[in-house]
Amino acid sequence: MSIKDNIFAAMYRKYNSVDRRKISLAILIVYCVLIIAGLIFHEQTPDEAKAWIIARDASFHDMIFLIPKYEGHPPFWHLLLSVPAKLGADYEISMCIIQFIGAGLLCFVFEFLTPFNNLARTFVPFTYFFFYRWGIYQRPYALLAAGLVFASYAYGKRREKPWLFIISLAFMCLWSLYGIVIAGGIAVAWLIEMTYDSAKSGKGAFSWITGDRKRLLGLTVLLAFALITIYLMIPAKDNYMYSAVASPGILMFFAHAAKVIFFVPAECFITSFMGTDLLYSYNYSVSESLICIAVSAVFYYVLFTAAVRKIKLLYFAVPFLFFMIISSNYIYLHHFGIVLFLAVFYLAVCKEDKAGKDSDRMIVPKLVSIFSVAAFCMAGMFWSFASLMCDAMYDCASGAALASFIKDNNIENLTMDCAWHTQTDDAGSITVNKPDTGIYAFIISAPYFEGNHVRNAIDGTAYNLTVEYGEDKIEDHIDKTRKKDAPELLYALNDGLKANYVKLIGLKEEYIPVFYSIEAVPCKDKQSFFLGGVLYARSDIASRYGLKEVKLP
Asked: What's the pTM value of the predicted model, to 2 decimals?
């Protein structure tokens, strides 16, 4: 029996011969049902909650011209959320509806507008980044991915409808800096391809410029829109988050770039070594490094063999190069999904040249591709299942529970401080480091209250930005806080922060813990647990409201 005539090959061909529309409709329905189930169990994390608070409390001026300089995202996600948020709609329901629409749109364009076979259509939507990380988490990445997948469809119509391709790239720019980066890389690859095709036709390398004035106008508008959006996001000088993640030198930049090249594809598709969300804070062992490099090499091999015309390699290489440059300064695990959807876009683009030539492909590259996709789907679906189980079984955030505790005990009108992040030097002096951190810890509960519930927020907002305040401003704020009455409630990220804050402000009153949370952080098939927020009540307040002291773990 030949390799093409075995039972598995026959099943493979038979399933792929089923009507694509029936398979896609069935998968879309199942996907949407599972997304709804996932959203029911999922509780908003601080990043998700902060976006809602910004949308609810910030002015449109600040959402457009100030906040992007600290958030590192275009303003359009906050503007989208501001519609239900400023109308007073329910926080959880609104976030879930918007996320469901984004995830459903992503699955729809993948199922009905891409050229992949039925097996890919069946399993890829349930992999980790497609389903859980970008489908369940209420962030703008599902919309970014939908734009990128739609761009692969619009690419095939770029000659007769270039505006459709340009609009898809502009749509990507709305949701993330990475969207702008990838859209820019695709646009550059398109320009190079047009120049190459024009030179090959004998009309002159740059004849495409005058060949379609509407296309040229569209590209010009796209460039202007991207540059304006980037301008809005240029990090403020006092944005400590940017200075904290930026590569401290050229050698470190190249070290980070090497991690992106050799480890990100593997961690995106097959391996699950990282035990932390930030790539640069995880050090791979020798064996892990070798495995990641090998897996990434297979990934690049599959992409290389997928292109019949090697000029198409530009549609992965250029955007990935841009992605590498940006992510060498800033990349978290949830950003890895960019590589997945860029690969989806690229492979769909390569399909344009195949049109009936797939059967002529050499057997070894074809088998490598099939087994690679199968391994990716198996790993990705397992990660999605493990993360869903973590969401269902454990508290992955304590916002709703803390808000319920405060409201059920009728203490929501009491004064509350949030313990700032502090440091203690060798002499024992306590200094404030990142005073917004304590407020940020409480932000998971902030959407359940009207307005700001925190008394000692430096700028008076519940969404404190990552501002590196000067010593004079911090000292002035500490002095003002000391002159106020001792807060009736004190919220701390953990017990250590509370202790230092009490000493810093000079609080003489006794505070007892009345609520705490043990929170789980799902990371693919791993879970990490930590002591989350702790709510302390002044002892006289605890007695008055009948709040019982809890023992911290």
From this structure: 0.94
